[in-house]
């Protein structure tokens, strides 16, 4: 959870401060970070699962101690941080692919179904209400009342 918050904060700040960054870079950066975190979680779970299944007699000891699972998490975390210390190539590939898809949609090479066109028109008509109804984003209405 912490990695998600840090990743989104980092990439959003980079997006806001760098004029060359687009939404493609923001989405790709967060997606790559989450993929690395997901792979680390799966690797850690697999190692702990194999370790506990391999030693049935020691399974209670391994599961009961905090030190062994914590040590595995730290080792896998360090290994993944070294292996994926620079993910800029992955982010570039993914953001370029997002740009290609967007260009194909805008040029008409890729057709979007009627439902997506309806969503697009609803968004263009009233973006605040669309985001409120779709994602639950709070909607603030500006109303002024003057009591004289």
H-E string: HHHHHHH
Q: Unreliable stretches, pLDDT < 50, 5 or more residues?
A: none
Name the beta content range.
Answer: under 5%
Biggest beta sheet summary: none
Helix/strand-derived category reads mainly alpha
Average of the residue pLDDT scores: 79
Give a count of the beta strands, DSSP E runs of length 2 or more.
0
**How many helices?**
7
The total domain count is: 2
**For the CA atoms, what is the radius of gyration?**
23 Å
Shape, per Cα inertia axes: extended
Helix content: over 70%
How far apart, in Å, are the first and last alpha carbons? 51 Å
Can you walk me through this structure?
- This protein has two domains: 2-105, no CATH class; 109-139, no CATH class.
- Helix content is 76%, strand content 0%.
- The protein is built from seven helices and no strands.
- The chain has helices spanning 2-17, 23-54, 59-64, 67-83, 88-107, 114-125, 127-135.
- The mean pLDDT is 79.
């Amino acid at each position: 959870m912490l990695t998600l918050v840090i990743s989104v904060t980092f990439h959003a700040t980079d997006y806001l401060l760098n004029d060359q960054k687009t939404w493609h870079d923001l989405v790709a950066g967060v997606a790559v970070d989450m993929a690395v975190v997901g792979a680390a979680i799966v690797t850690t779970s697999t190692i702990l699962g194999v370790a506990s299944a391999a030693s049935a007699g020691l399974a209670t000891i391994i599961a009961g101690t905090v030190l062994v699972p914590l040590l595995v998490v730290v080792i896998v975390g360090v290994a993944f941080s070294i292996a994926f210390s620079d993910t800029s190539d992955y982010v570039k590939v993914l953001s370029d692919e997002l740009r290609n898809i967007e260009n194909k949609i805008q040029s008409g090479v890729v057709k979007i179904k009627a439902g997506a066109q309806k969503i697009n028109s609803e968004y263009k008509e009233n973006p605040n209400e669309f985001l409120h109804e779709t994602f639950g984003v709070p909607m603030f209405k500006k109303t002024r009342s003057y009591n004289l």
